[in-house]
Specification:
This protein has helices spanning 18-29, 41-51, 67-79, 102-130, 150-173, 188-201, 205-215, 224-235, and strands at 9-13, 33-38, 55-59, 84-87, 133-137, 176-182, 246-249. The chain is of the alpha/beta class. The chain folds into 2 domains: 9-186 and 223-242, NAD(P)-binding Rossmann-like Domain (Rossmann fold); 188-221, no CATH class. Strands 3-2-1-4-5-6-7 form a 7-stranded parallel β-sheet, with helices on both faces. Helix 1 crosses helix 8 (224-235), helix 3 (67-79) runs parallel beside helix 4 (102-130) and helix 6 packs across helix 7. The longest helix has 29 residues, at 102-130.
């Protein structure tokens, strides 16, 4: 299906692996020109090569206050415009609330929230000029709190609120802003959770994976490609009336309104 993204310029953060890589590959298949950001130069080069000649790597630590603007300026220098910003970068530490130090909280907000805010702020006038859009990748923890996911839940909730704020501004400026809440997706991070579950309960990995899915009351874990397909849709003209939408892609894990 042609989603009308051919020739569009997209910035994808956290593009070196997992969901970010899947998003980059999906947008590339739709004909978008890409600027791919992450900290790992080697992995970024691999993803860029897989996406073709019009995918450019930008290795940077987006926790640095200056990096988001530099990323936007790089995209403008190379392609002359920006049509889409996908804020995907960011991971947060799980653990007991009483044992999580300030540094972990600061790190979680620095990459997933502050970097997304700064990327949006730097890209906004160019997105407005192009009639472009932003897709924020948050997470189901922002809608339903859980004891071991204090940092991630707080960060995701903040990013969802920022989505609504920017969508409200975007009505006047001509920028569409939406968000996706992935549930448990088959990435390296989920593999580590499954391994930890296996160790704690003395289970083989396959049984631990099934047990974790049952705990979440879902039939299976999601695929990165399923998140990527939703990003491509939200970025396309087919989603032209989606503004401030929050799409849960979690296999039914979120049961709250």
């Amino acid at each position: 299906m042609d989603l009308g993204l051919r020739g569009k310029v997209a910035i994808v953060t956290g593009a070196s692996r997992g969901i970010g890589r899947a998003i980059a590959e999906e947008l590339s298949r739709e004909g978008a020109r890409l600027v791919l950001a992450a900290r790992s130069t080697d992995l970024l080069l691999e993803v860029a090569a897989a996406c073709g000649a019009e995918a450019l790597p930008f290795a940077a630590d987006l926790r640095s206050a200056a990096a988001p603007r530099a990323l936007v300026e790089f995209a403008l220098e190379k392609f002359g415009r920006i049509d889409l910003l996908v804020n995907n970068a960011g991971a947060t530490r799980r653990g007991d609330f009483l044992e999580l130090p300030d540094a972990d909280w600061e790190d979680g907000f620095a990459l997933k929230f502050h970097a997304s805010m700064r990327c949006a702020r730097a890209a906004w006038p160019h997105l407005a000029r192009a009639g472009g859009s932003i897709v924020n990748i948050a997470g189901v923890g922002g809608r339903t709190g859980s004891a071991e996911f204090a940092i991630g839940g707080a960060v995701n909730a903040a990013l969802l609120n920022l989505t609504k704020v920017l969508a409200d501004r975007g009505v006047a400026d001509g920028v569409r802003v939406n968000a996706i809440n992935p549930g448990s997706i088959e990435t390296d991070r989920l593999a580590l959770r499954i391994a930890g579950h296996a160790d704690r309960h003395g289970l083989p990995l396959a049984e631990a994976a099934s047990a974790l899915a049952r705990e979440q009351r879902i039939a299976r874990f999601g695929k990165p490609a399923e998140i990527a397909a939703a990003v491509a849709f939200l970025a396309s003209p087919r989603a032209g009336f989606c503004q401030g939408a929050v799409l849960d892609i979690d296999g039914g894990q979120t049961r709250t309104l």
